[in-house]
Amino acid sequence: MSKKFLKAVKGMNDILPSETPLLQYIEKNIRQVLEAYGYQEIRLPLLESTELFSRSIGEVTDIVEKEMFSFLDTPDKYGNRDSLTLRPEGTAGCVRAGIEHGLFYNQRQRLWYIGPMFRHEKPQKGRYRQFYQIGAEAYGLSGPDIDAEMILMTARFWRRLGLDDLELQINSLGSAAARAAYREQLVSYFSDRRSQLDADSQRRLQTNPLRILDSKNPEMQALIENAPQLLEHLDEASLEHFATLKHLLEKAGVNYRVNPRLVRGLDYYNRTVFEWVTQNLGAQGTVCAGGRYDGLVEQLGGKQPTPAVGFAMGLERLVLLLSQVQVADKSPHAYLLMVGNDAVIEQGLCLAESLRDLLPELRLLTHCGGGSFKSQFKRADKSGAKIALVLGENEVTNQEITLKYLRENRPQFSVAQSELGEYLKTLIIDK
Ligand code: HAM
Fold first, then answer.
1. What atom in ligand 1 is closest to the CA of residue 128?
2. Do 121 and 82 meet the contact criterion of CB atoms below 8 Å apart?
């Protein structure tokens, strides 16, 4: 058998122990804020039917056209093979689960989720093929008040994490009917100037003309700048919704910029769309994005009209922005050395268990694997622990333990094993 070393799949990253504390810090803070606003966690499968995504995100979007990890399931007893896809985002699965379990029926829901998403994109800084999102979705609420509250919640995330360089961009896509009328105008405008369109935009002219507005090609910018604007073609009700949202954001003191070209890359949106963008991550500057999707629940088979709004943020991008933050030290409080015969190890392991019973928050590392006092002490020091607990044959006989500070210049001392818990509590944990 080949002994060739197999590397991780392109774009799929390992998150190493040195990196997890920052991730945990972000997750903990965001979870606290979500709970404070009454959002409840939902856990969803990574695999869904391919059709769920093509029907919700849209057949002619980048995600569905070229970024999905899809494969055929093993044949069922009739030989049929379902097409399955690793989820590229969380909204479609959340709607599917809500319909399947009757969560939307005459109910309002505020839900959130965390987990990996998969997109077959070209990897670069801030863009990966497996990445983590935290997302939130609210169902059964149609007014701009919930849009505003959601955006205020995201603003609170950034305050909580100490991020102050994010810009909020908002736009309204209006009703499906208003968008269809606008689409015709846009197609006519770009068709008259077809020769100025790049290849990608020529293709989009047929399939998804609104996405031309999203083009990053510098040579297309003047053309796009002069194109008819969606905001000028909105229906009355959507205009009012958008005006109230802006008013509420102003009242709450959240700065925003209306970006009339913000159209989002997924088809399910209507009315409000928004993105939080940073200048500090190069091309992948969108940290958090979302909007309203009032039609999706019915489109996927829900029996009742269910207005919905939500967003998701990319955790790797937050990690990149926060990489300078000092997170709480998770090194062990204490390191237990066990130097001597079998009786030492027996007593040591039992002592460690009783300490863990007594002090659930204690981070205690036991030295397994034997060795001399010197070599065990070296490892204790390297572990980052504040204190070494030394158990030798004398200590076993006397039912004592020796405590030695590793980071402070203080004399070592011995205490009865029965009192060790109290000592550790006052010396380390309560400090
Ligand atoms: P999205 O804009 O496709 O929206 O993704 C949301 C966020 O996920 C992005 O702003 C970015 O931070 C992160 N992200 C996306 N792709 C990648 C990638 N390849 N690598 C790293 N991070 C990435 C959605 O997914 C919608 N489901 C959001 C939503 C929820 N709308 C309503 N509810």
1. 20
2. no
Residues forming beta bridges with residue 109, ordered by sequence position: 139
Digit-coded pLDDT (tens) for 397-426? 999 999 999 999 999 999 999 999 999 998
Q: Give 227 Cα–ligand 1 centroid separation in angstroms.
A: 27
Atom of ligand 1 nearest to the CA of 135: 30
Cβ(194)–Cβ(309) below 8 Å = no
> In a mutational test of the pocket of ligand 1, which residue from 69, 117, 322 has the highest number of ligand atoms less than 8 Å from its CB?
117
288-334 pLDDT per residue, tens:
999 999 999 999 999 999 999 999 999 999 999 998 788 888 899 99
Q: 431: pLDDT confidence band, cut at 50, 70 and 90?
A: low
DSSP per-residue codes, 6-66: PPPPTT-----TTTHHHHHHHHHHHHHHHHHTT-EE----SEEEHHHHHHHT-TTSHHHHH
Q: Is ligand 1 within 6 A of the CB of residue 62?
A: no
Q: Which numbered atom of ligand 1 lies nearest the CA of 137?
A: 33
Q: What is the three-class DSSP state of 172?
A: strand
